[in-house]
Predict the structure.
Amino acid sequence: MIDLSTRVLRAMIALDEVRHFSLAAERCHVTQSALSQTISKLEADVNLRLVDRDRRRVMLTPEGERFVATARRVMAELEEISIDLRDRSELRKGRVVVTAQPSLAAHWLPPIIAAYQARYPGVQFGLHDALPEKALEQIRQRQADLALTARGPGLAGLQHRLLFRDPFVLVCPCAHPLARRKSVSIANLEGQRFIRLIRGGSIAQHLEQALREARFVDTGLEVEQVATLAGLVANGLGISIVPVCALAYFDPDRVAAVPVKGNDLSRPIYLVWPAGAQLSSAAESFVQMLKPPEARMGFG
Amino acid sequence: MIDLSTRVLRAMIALDEVRHFSLAAERCHVTQSALSQTISKLEADVNLRLVDRDRRRVMLTPEGERFVATARRVMAELEEISIDLRDRSELRKGRVVVTAQPSLAAHWLPPIIAAYQARYPGVQFGLHDALPEKALEQIRQRQADLALTARGPGLAGLQHRLLFRDPFVLVCPCAHPLARRKSVSIANLEGQRFIRLIRGGSIAQHLEQALREARFVDTGLEVEQVATLAGLVANGLGISIVPVCALAYFDPDRVAAVPVKGNDLSRPIYLVWPAGAQLSSAAESFVQMLKPPEARMGFG
DNA sequence: GTCAATTACGTTCTCCGTAAGGATG
DNA sequence: CATCCTTACGGAGAACGTAATTGAC
């Protein structure tokens, strides 16, 4: 098959539009000589005269008309994809879907998303809140471009990097004796009324080992939602340990947060994306805007 | 806009198909290095990564998928027009419409048309029979590509060239005294019973001047159709003068033809085609096959 | 003589291939 | 260390521009 380029297509289209070699050349930003050669070579390639040189009036042969009709369609397609890709490269277009740990999705991410959308208003932003297992599955299924999640099953099979570590803090009522300490250790919590978070969440998993040796007074309270926990703690029903990112669920006027010392007691948050793939420009630019939450201990 | 070529489109399509630079390069008949450069340049041009190089597995980015989808459509279009034009250049396809003088259409042309269709079976052949005025109008309206006709009004405004001259001959019954002569002049016809062809046909027009001075016996017979004239002459009702091309209407067993001497007594037959246009390949190839009728005087 | 397209020719630039480099498993 | 892609570099060819040529009016 013939090797065609947009140069040639443009030349024929211009020639059809102005029916004049010199003017067509000008429109193509080349000399008239160059255009003449381009057309001649094309005609030689297809072994067919495509242009009628009648001295007085230049016009296309029937075969030339056929060619130029295709040329117009092709140029329209190429211009469209060209503009489309340019828009995407400059983030005037695109789509990024993020799946994130509920606690991140609820508090840390929203301002970042807002900033992202303000900066790239043309990019559609999709957000799912899901626990690690489901989040990773969404990445595998390509239902999401990017996951922000704690470690979950199958993480090794995906591309990932540690984004930041989310340290655990003690949460207790403001009036609680421990509330005024600069920090506490697990040992300091002996004898306290402890409210447990249970089930799938990453918080429970990461705390399990650390709390195994602790000797708490059993409150009988086991909740799934951090928001529930926040209500219990605020009302003096017990204390607990949560990651800094979950602090936003708590009322700062009623609950104090105290750093917990010891053995790297923190939850790792990973950035995860599909194996064998690369982030889209839209996703990449979102990652650029991700900064770990400031490590604010205590409130306001 | 970016300057794209089929080279680049092919490269992306191949890469999408085999997901492997080396194999894709092979498919494109270039080295792997060249393909790599081609892709890199394309990515630089659109300022976007289109291909994921994951060492283990090569695949396209979402933007690359978009590009390749367009690339496939464009290549399909270009291949189609490419094949179409090749077919036309090699006359496996095409269409030519000829409008010709009725006498030419009836006898001289048919074997030529048959030979043309045998040689170029893919080319559609259209034939109209029309007198000069209508034939030229068909050329102007682009209802026909080519006219084979005597001079008519408006011929000067179209492109034309003399194809051949169609000499006039005397037609008379075989038993007629003039039938055995090698040639006759208008003067020799004095006193003969002459049958006139009248109206639009080119024959009457060209004869008018030559016959003005002739002194015929009035037969009162004036016919429009040459076929009618043939019947009258064959039955001894008179003699007449017709162009050689019209001899085919006459029965060679009953009518003799004798060349007419003097003052270029012949009808010019022109090849006519539209102003400011060039013959299509199909029409051009038909013209190549046109040979003036052999100047056979008398029959058998 | 003027206008417009083609042809001739030298220059520039693109694209390719060879070969060296680098990353990954 | 083997595979596969990228980078470096030199050469061949394509395309362009300048300028001379042809052709029509």
